[in-house]
Amino acid sequence: MGGRRGPGRRMRGRPRAFEETRTTAEERSRIRAWFAGRLPDDWFTGAPDVTVDDNEILVVGPLAPVELAAGSTEEEQATAVAGRIGGFREDTRGHRMRIAEEAQANFGRQVSWGARVGERTALFHTASVPVMTRLRMDDRQVLDTLIDAGVARSRSEALAWCVRLVGRNEGTWIADLRSAFKQVEEVRGRGPEGSAPEA
User: Fold this and answer.
1) Domain 22-123: which topology?
2) pLDDT, tens digit, for every residue of 21-80?
3) How far is it, in rounded angstroms, from Cα 48 to Cα 130?
4) Which strands form 120-123's sheet, in the order they lie side by side?
5) CB-based contact 150:161 (threshold 8 Å)
6) How far apart are CA 55 and CA 178, in angstroms?
7) In terms of C-beta density within 10 A (0-12 exposed, 13-18 middle, 19 or more buried), how is residue 136 classed?
8) CA angle (25, 128, 8) in 5-degree steps
9) Rounded to whole angstroms, what are the CA distances from 67 to 74, 120, 159?
10) Between 135 and which of 57, 114, 131, 139 could a Cys-Cys bridge form, CB atoms 3.0 to 4.6 Å apart?
11) What letter does residue 39 receive in the DSSP assignment?
12) The pLDDT of residue 121 is above 90
């Protein structure tokens, strides 16, 4: 018989799209340095936040505040801020696309953008990355309960809702974990101290 696979057979190994690769602290620093040198000086009023994970690079920079006449309403302020961010988005679109293409070729990640005016932050297009996981019945029942209650339309949407809930309610704890992990990466990158033992 030939080597054809039947319809019920699956190839060994995970699909390439779901292979996990971890980003090191050195790689994140290198990507941030690249953007610091590549972004035009007149785009932002300060250093942008460049967030890097295994799939995406998110660049969010501060824009100049909007000056309105005294006594302007909150709605007018919100409209002015939206106009400032929208103007930046449209005026820089072509240039941002070129930078994103260069970064994707260099670092193998999608580039997303955002801008911030005061307390208002707007993200333009960000990546939505599928995550494969295995859940036991108790965990699946939690997701199904959220679906039955109308909170989510599918298990994947329910899982994303749970992740957002943890991130919102446990933000300080998550930040502490990231800080501790960053220190571990820095120590690991330096390697063992001292000279090698003499022969």
Assistant:
1) Alpha-Beta Plaits (3.30.70)
2) 677 888 999 999 999 999 999 999 999 999 998 889 999 999 999 988 888 898 999 999
3) 27
4) 49-52, 56-62, 110-117, 120-123
5) no
6) 17
7) exposed
8) 105
9) 13, 15, 42
10) 139
11) S
12) yes
Give the helix/strand (H/E) hosting 136: none
Q: pLDDT band at 194, cuts 50/70/90?
A: low
DSSP state of 111: E
Report the predicted TM-score, pTM, of the whole model to 2 decimal places: 0.65
C-beta separation of 21 from 76 below 8 A: no
Q: Which of 72, 84, 93, 166 is nearest to 120 (CA)?
A: 84
Q: Domain limits of the chain?
A: 22-123, 137-189
Helix (H, G, I), strand (E, B) or coil at 46: coil
Residues 143-170 pLDDT 10s: 989 998 999 898 888 998 998 888 888 8
